[in-house]
# Entry
Amino acid sequence: MSQLRSHYSIKNGLGLRELRAVLAVAELGSFRRAAAELGYTQSALSHQVSALEVALGWPLFHRPGGRAQVRLTPAGEAVCRRARRALSEVEAVAADAEEAERGESVRLRVGVSQTAAAEIMPSALRAFRGEHPGVEVVLSETDETDESEGCRDALRRGDLDLAFSHNPEPDESVEAIPVMEDPWVILTRRDSGIAELERPGFDVLDGLDVVAWTHRWKGQLALEEALQRRSIAPKIVYRTDDNLALQRLVAAGLGHACIGRLAASRAVDPVLTWLSPREPLSPREIVLCYPRRRHMTATALALITAIRAQATT
# Structure
């Protein structure tokens, strides 16, 4: 195919709809779920992806068939990287217009967990600030003990524009956008008796000393219930409300801990390591929530895009 023909084909098969379709399928692992997320029929979404594949001349997904999850090909991974940047630029155009029209400082208020504030937002805000230097972003720690109600109430009242959450319950007034999977893993010292195990089960914690969060945290309650269902009974010797303190206690050799993979992969002490059990304990996903019935500004959409882009890198 000549260069002219190639460019023409790509130009006619490439649009924002096609890019959003590919990203949705990649993130959700399913054409059916992606179609529901974007409000298309499955056949319409499949057509959009196929049109882009034809234009590029490469398949973007491995399609195993049945209920198996689709996976990106190398070409698909490259397209997704560019697609995120392209959509970010499009949203930046609208955000710039909004800021210029207002002629004043724009403020976004984001409810964050300790992990989101420390591990997701710094890189996301660095990327966001490069495009929107005049936007003030206020991070407010949300109370994990009241996550399902407090955050949602704050979003409904307009006290927050966005808020991070884990596995929120369905809510007709709040929309939840997936950010990343954050499964439970085991945090331990590198010289501990379990550190050399390859893909152990959570049952290795049965009877061992464990550092945990207090029962004020809904996530800790869900964690203990999941362990109990499997008849796993670790010995909880210390509890804390602070993520940093929990990691320091483990680093001091006072017990192991179950925490999210995101926090564990960026542990604060080099003596720490983490184990990914062979079977997940329970589904755990970080999502970004916003109010359905309030106008979503272009600036807020641009921040959402920056957060999701940084979370997947």
